[in-house]
Amino acid sequence: MSGRHRICGLCAAVVAACAILASASRARAEVVGQITVTATQQNLTDSFTFAWQTSDDPATYLLSAPEELRDGTTLLGTIKSLQVDIDQDPGVQLKFAVDANASLTTFTITSSTVSFSPLVNPLAFASAGVTVTDNDSDGATVTGLEPGAKAYRAFYNGSTDWAYLVAPVVAGTDTTNTVNDRQPAGNGRLPIINTVSSITSEFKFTLTANDSASGTSRFDVQGNNVPEPASLGVLGIGSLLALRRRRA
Fold it and tell me: pTM above 0.90?
């Protein structure tokens, strides 16, 4: 049975308000949209979504307790930890840890979008690392589902891709393995030849049955017209709203 999701009226209003304020006050860096983790197995799916508003800068969202992802009574996976850090530089860090259940599971983990005053040809870097652990003595693999079998994607302006990072990660029997990646390699920054007004990070991969995966990333841009320090949310209510997207 395919997963179909809904958003409660209050959270939909929160997201709509953020979008209106983003267009009306582009001089400030803002969190716009939602943080979503989705688990899928064949025709089964479930998502956990966080609608976020805050007046803090830098701002952090931290999952308070593990969250199971289920389609009906079927456990698809567990979010063991989730953290998103946002600052007005602007930059976004995305960190997670998940478990798969008894089947190969696809996870998609998407950060909030950080919007800011447009930067022309800004300098940027993206870095990411993924760790996989074998929990059932048959090896473990994380295989990215972004282009090039990469597990991490950094993109800007809503849909324009800038970096794909982290090739498949394989751990032997009863072991753990980590792969780190960066654009540009080593250190430093590369220009994004465009006008950039928002950035987003995403992990998307398959994880072998009964195994664990974790990851961390940062996508950071800077330019001569970076906004002066300002609060991240202009609504000023400093709230976090968590909701469950379930099958209709």
Answer: no
Length of the chain, please?
248
The pLDDT tens digits for 26-67 are 334 555 557 899 999 999 999 999 876 666 778 888 899 999
Which residues have CB under 8 Å from 198's CB, separation 6+?
32, 113, 114, 115, 116, 156, 157, 158
Residues 176-216 have pLDDT tens digits of 999 999 999 999 999 999 999 999 999 999 999 999 999 99
Residues 6+ apart with CB under 8 A from 121: 191, 192, 193, 194, 195, 223
The partner residues of 131 in beta bridges, in order of sequence, read: 178, 214
What's the CA gap between 228 and 248, in Å, rounded? 44
What are the C-alpha distances in Å from 114 to residues 24, 52, 62, 93, 160? 15, 11, 17, 11, 14
